[in-house]
Amino acid sequence: MKLKWRGLQFEHYILGILLAVEWIMSFTFLGYIHIPPISITTAHIPIVVIACLFGPVESSVAGLFFGLGSMYKASALYVMLGDRIFSPFQTDFPIGSILLSVGTRVLFGFLMGCIFKIVNKSRYKWAGKSLAALIATPLHALLVYGAMGILFPESGFNYKSSFRWGVNDYAIAAICILAVILSDIIYHSSFVTHYKNVINDSELRQHWSVVHYYNICILHSSFFHNIFCKPDRIYVWCIWCQGNEENSTGHSSFAGTISGSYDFTELYSASYHFDDL
């Protein structure tokens, strides 16, 4: 008897853990390599893994997490100058920034889910999955750089930029392939399959050990994110205030962010004391 998605307890836990990994990578330094003029990301890798194991809906949700994290980090202090167009608070075209940071990542997750859905129905699954994982990184770059060329042509990036690969790009592509293959092997191993069937066939709606460790993982992830990113919340709030002030005076918010009157360094360092009050 084929179980409905609502009854697949084990799949819920695995998807939740992968989404938590995506959330952490998207909102912290773990998913980005800060190299001028624009950061290189590895946060798309969990999206590819989710697309391989689940489908386009789940990978689209992961893409939404990635996009929100990208938009948040683009408003922070420690990004590259070229990353600021991903923030609606630092450009004169906020809708374009949202489409660039969130829209392209959701589309990427959906496309990867569709690709793996087709691959999983083919005869040569391993070859197809390896090829799909290989094209994931250039596909993500093509979507992002292409959107940058359309929405922000003054940035100097366009779809041609996605074909300029360096050592870091090849390394990230190799890591993506390795992550997909290992995840697929482990997920479909006999041990995991047996454990999955036991949980899904159980009369209990929750398996205590899995739920317990899963909740601990989410709790610690949220705690880590709150401690690590608390100065940035003050900074993003100041960016928003500055944008409102500059819009009321008719000045460019993007230019004002670079040479604005706010002393963000002082606010950034003082935010620790602010939270301790």
Quick recap of the structure?
The protein has helices at 9-27, 45-53, 56-74, 94-119, 125-151, 167-187, 190-201, 208-249, 253-259, 264-276; strands spanning 32-33, 40-41.
Can you tell me about this structure?
- With 277 residues, the chain is mainly alpha-helical.
- 70% of the residues lie in helices and 1% in strands.
- It is built from ten helices and two strands.
- The chain has a two-stranded antiparallel ribbon.
- Strand 1 and strand 2 form a beta hairpin.
- Helix 4 (94-119) runs antiparallel to helix 5 (125-151).
- The chain is globular and about 55 Å long.
- The chain starts with 8 loop residues before the first helix and ends with a helix.
- Residues 251-277 have low confidence and may be disordered.
Radius of gyration: 21 Å
Quaternary organisation: single chain
Question: Strand order, biggest sheet?
Answer: 1-2
**Total helix count?**
10
Low-confidence stretches: 251-277
Structural class comes to mainly alpha
Give me the secondary-structure topology.
Blueprint: H1 9-27, E1 32-33, E2 40-41, H2 45-53, H3 56-74, H4 94-119, H5 125-151, H6 167-187, H7 190-201, H8 208-249, H9 253-259, H10 264-276
Antiparallel strand pairs: 1-2
Helix pairs in contact: 1-2, 1-3, 1-8, 2-3, 2-4, 2-6, 3-4, 4-5, 5-6, 8-9, 8-10
Primary descriptors:
277 residues, single chain, 10 helices, two-stranded antiparallel ribbon, disordered C terminus
